Structures are given as structure tokens and as C-alpha cells.
């Protein structure tokens, strides 16, 4: 259940109660695609990095180790040892972005595994069954994500199919939750708004899917080729049509600038692989801007990554040491920088929530919009 605490213009401060704990919103979901944060960071580490929600991926876990295996081992919470909320992406985006060969029909999608090429079929019922086996807190409806820009007619047909698939996803999950053997019989379902960059398709889609009274709603199909201005235009069009009493999730979007812009427009929930992916390549976020630790100027720099950060990395290690680890190809470099970026992102959301609580979000937005994205 979502509770709106306060508005600052369209920006929202809220809480979302789930079977695995209450999420303070706006919030960031740390991406553990295959049940682990890439960069040797475990669920136990996440507790010290202010993580609220872990996101795992249906497609990847279905391929390895197999959702039936995860079910046998007690579901994702038992498997990963993360005891907070977990959201599972439906697999739709990966089907359309990773599978080189795929065939879309009304029933679902037949595609070749990106691992070994074997043929796999996934539709709404299959996606819900996999997510039920994974026993996540929140399941995402199976949808079709189109690349931007997409021809209008194809975007319209795809949007209609996504709505039909959402209704099937809901019916399937309702049935699975009633089964005696369900690991998480209170599994929640979020629907996904699609429609490419066409405002009329987006608005129509949102009006129709909100009638299903789901646990939350996501804006999908953005940050897949369009400019930021196009993304903000679509968010502005969709947000007024989204229910006030349900969480609003912007999928796969995550630079600090994008986050501040989307929170300002009324978005509650985010995920993105960028903070951890960038960290594994030596790019870290700080309150002064972004640093590239491969730069030679850090060779003798004894300062912490960020003097304004109290994460375990900044409290203990210097820029010079991390520069050395990257230049030496040490795995510890990735682990430490991933930990720092996760902590930074979750701290960013703490600061956003605090500014909403005390009515200073607009000032926080103006003060930090350009600083956090600049390259040092």
C-alpha cells in the first residue's frame, strides 16, 4: 500500500508498504541482475550501503540457474540472503535487447538464448510463473519494449499488445498467488506504460491500465535511444494520468540529473545499472561531480574519493590506492568503487527525501542539478 506523505509541487514524498518491508520513497533500486550486484558486492554488504530494494532479472535467472532451482532453494530471499523488498523485471526488455533472433506473436515471444542459442518461449503466463518461482516482492508485467524512435503504427500495435499481455499477467499472477505451494502468496504486480515517444499512445495506455487497479505502475521504454528532453516530455504527459495512491516507477533511468528531473515531475522509484557499471570502469560519483580514477593525477593523491562521503570506502582508502588497484587490474578496485557508488546513490535519495520532508526540494534541485553530473 502506498501512502503519500507530502507534495512539493508534483514531487512526492511517500512510503510503500510491501510484504518484505516499507520502502521510503523516492527510492533507488540497486540492480542485482542475476541475484548479485556485479563487482563482488553481496546482500550482506548492501545493508551497510543504505540499500532499500534489490532488483533481479527474470530473463537471466530463468536461464541460470533456472527459476525452478531458485524455487527449490526457497526463492530469491533465501537464495541471495537479502531480506528486504525485491523487484523482478519481467524479462521483456532483455528479450528485445539481447535476443538476436525473436518471433513475436499474440501468445508471446520465441527467442534464442544469448548464452547457448537454445530456443525459449516466454509470454505473460510464463513470465508470471518464473517470477512466482523466484518469489520476489514485486513482479513486473510482461511487456514489449520498442526501440526509439519507432514508427507510429508499430508503436500503437505494440502498445495494444502490451495492454493485452498485462491483463493476462494479472490473471496469471492472481491464480499463482492462490496456489497452495506459492512461496510468496502476497506477490505484488506492477503494470508498464508503453507507447514510444508518442504522447497520445502513452496517455491512452495509462488511462487503460490504471483501470486494472494494480499495486503500482511503471513508465517503460524510455532511455532507449531518445534524447533526455524527449524523455521528460513523455514523463510530463504520463504522470497526470497515473494514480495518486500508487507508486510510480521510471524504468532503467539513473543519472543524477535524470533522477532530479524525474523526482521533480512526480516519479517515486528508479533503477539503473549505470552506477555499478561505471564504478567497475573507475568512474565514481561524488558530491563535487564525477571522477575517473584512471587519471594520472590521482597517482599520489592521498585524499578519500569524496571528503563529504562517510561510506566505508571513503573512510578507509585513498584515491591513490584505488588508482593503483585499477592500474594493477585488481578485483578489489571494482568492489570498492561499486560499494561507493551504491552508497552515493542511496545517500542522494536520502537527501532528496529530507529536502521533500522540510520543503526545500526546489532549492536542492537547483543547487545540485549540474554539479552532480559534471566531470572533474
UniProtKB/TrEMBL annotation:
Transmembrane segments: none annotated. GO terms for biological process: tRNA queuosine(34) biosynthetic process. Residues 252-258, 276-280 are annotated as: RNA binding. Keywords: Glycosyltransferase, Metal-binding, Queuosine biosynthesis, Transferase, tRNA processing, Zinc. InterPro entries: ArchSynthase1/Queuine_TRR (IPR050076), TGT (IPR004803), TGT-like_sf (IPR036511), tRNA_ribo_trans-like (IPR002616). Residues 9-369 form the tRNA-guanine(15) transglycosylase-like domain. The keyword Kinase does not apply. One of its GO terms (molecular function) is metal ion binding. Pfam families: TGT (PF01702). The active site is at residues 89, 271. Its EC number is 2.4.2.29. It comes from the Bacteria. One of its GO terms (cellular component) is cytosol. It catalyses: 7-aminomethyl-7-carbaguanine + guanosine(34) in tRNA = 7-aminomethyl-7-carbaguanosine(34) in tRNA + guanine. Substrate binds at residues 89-93, 143, 194, 221. Homodimer. Within each dimer, one monomer is responsible for RNA recognition and catalysis, while the other monomer binds to the replacement base PreQ1. Catalyzes the base-exchange of a guanine (G) residue with the queuine precursor 7-aminomethyl-7-deazaguanine (PreQ1) at position 34 (anticodon wobble position) in tRNAs with GU(N) anticodons (tRNA-Asp, -Asn, -His and -Tyr). Catalysis occurs through a double-displacement mechanism. The nucleophile active site attacks the C1' of nucleotide 34 to detach the guanine base from the RNA, forming a covalent enzyme-RNA intermediate. The proton acceptor active site deprotonates the incoming PreQ1, allowing a nucleophilic attack on the C1' of the ribose to form the product. HAMAP family: Q_tRNA_Tgt (MF_00168). Belongs to the queuine tRNA-ribosyltransferase family. This is Queuine tRNA-ribosyltransferase.
